[in-house]
Amino acid sequence: MTAETPQGVAKRSVMIAGHRTSVSLEAEFWAALQEIARRQGQSVQALIGAIDAARGGSNLSSAIRVFVLRSVQACSGPAPVTACDGEAVRQRDASEQGSGGEPAASPAGPRNHRP
What we know:
about 15% strand; single chain; 3-stranded antiparallel β-sheet; about 45% helix
């Protein structure tokens, strides 16, 4: 189910840990989240579940935006955002854990790698 507000924020219903909840994000964040999930070989719902499990006490919509932002920031070079598969985010987060930094969600699951 998707409802869109005049500001371009879409509210979608997702199932997380057996409970249905609504998530409101701007259309651009939904599109980026869908691309990240596709690159990782998992559903958007599974990716949101992983973000939810790692978010601590923060708001879910905010945690998703931060995850998408970190994924975008992890992309290097002139390639567009959609060229990222999230691996750089997982590697950076693993190194931050050793340095006392705050890790982002590191969703498990199959990933599609390009040579």
